[in-house]
Design a protein that fits this description.
Length: 205
């Protein structure tokens, strides 16, 4: 006697939202990290935020945002001391991580795998799991130590992205510069911000 096949009643698994870890460190340029959070929210990307102690001080000095304001822009926020956070594990599914701005201290820690805090540990996880890690390094001028750390961490798989303005966009102000830099960073994750000007060659008169 043959059995009648039964139709499956199980529903398809709903695809999860893309996830990106955002880390702010104590270097100048915290507005870049804030703008990245705003842009990712507009793109419906799930964000996991870490703010270092010195980033908290810098953002209050450089911007009108409070730490609470910035944390509210993210879907999830963690203490930099919480090494038991989900993002400290390689089993956490994520598209990648942006350290913006990235101080030279954080760069050095990531380069040598010194995961003393959650930012360095999460970045170390990105490298070992072969996920995209973008370091928006902020320092000027650069010493040979900085340059060697940048070259070394690039060989480990990270992307160094100094926040250099593009003058061909003819920015009207600092907000335009910040927006374009953040847009180019998100390009590295296959994410496109609307309205970002792109080079289209010289326009003939």
């Amino acid at each position: 006697m043959s059995s009648t096949p039964q139709s499956s009643t199980s529903s398809a698994i709903t695809p999860r939202r893309k996830r990106i870890i955002i880390a702010l460190t104590g270097a100048t340029g915290t507005i870049l990290g804030i703008q990245a959070l705003i842009a990712l929210r507009a793109l419906n990307v799930e964000t996991h935020l870490i703010i270092s102690k010195w980033a908290e001080n810098t953002l209050k000095y450089e911007t009108d945002y409070t730490v609470a304001n910035v944390r509210a822009l993210a879907d999830y926020s963690y203490s930099n001391h919480d090494l038991a956070a989900p993002i400290a594990s390689g089993s956490f599914r994520v598209e990648g991580m942006i350290v913006v701005p990235c101080s030279m201290k954080t760069l050095a820690a990531i380069n040598v795998g010194y995961g003393e805090d959650l930012i360095a540990r999460a970045a170390d996880v990105m490298l070992k799991e072969r996920h995209r890690l973008v370091l928006v390094t902020r320092e000027c001028p650069l010493s040979s130590v900085h340059l060697e750390n940048m070259l070394s961490v690039t060989r480990h798989g990270a992307v160094i992205f100094p926040p250099v303005p593009a003058f061909y966009t003819k920015p009207a102000g600092l907000a335009d510069v910040v927006e374009h830099i953040v847009g180019r960073v998100l390009d590295l994750f296959g994410l496109e911000m609307e309205g970002i000007p792109r080079w289209e060659g010289f326009v003939k008169d």
